[in-house]
Design goal:
Layout: E1 33-35, E2 43-44, E3 59-60, E4 65-67, E5 71-78, E6 91-97
Antiparallel strand pairs: 1-4, 2-3, 5-6
């Protein structure tokens, strides 16, 4: 998971299933950073058919970007498509080189 994720919003529901590791921002070299949408789930567990109303549906924020110091991020977002075609929602970044 990315630093800054709300552990209550994206709490692990069952320890028997996949648990993502945690990325450590402090371990990055100076000027490097992680960028992700902290509010919108980018992935879900495949233990059951997707139902947004199910209390058993495990959601994660595990997709994002590692940005180098020479990149200026203009915007980034996760598109909540309801996991229509896959177990991940698309994640988009707009960036320019400095």
């Amino acid at each position: 998971s990315f630093p800054g994720i709300n552990p209550e919003r994206f709490a692990v529901k069952n320890l028997d299933y996949f648990i993502p590791g945690n990325l450590n921002a402090a371990a990055l070299a100076e000027g490097w950073r992680y960028v992700t949408d902290l509010q919108t789930p980018s992935s879900r567990l495949l233990n059951e058919p997707y139902s947004p109303d199910s209390g058993n549906t495990q959601l994660y924020v595990i997709d994002g970007f590692l940005v180098s110091p020479n990149v200026e991020v203009i915007s980034y977002e996760t598109f909540d498509l309801g996991f229509k075609h896959t177990d991940h929602n698309p994640v988009k970044i707009k960036a320019v080189l400095k």
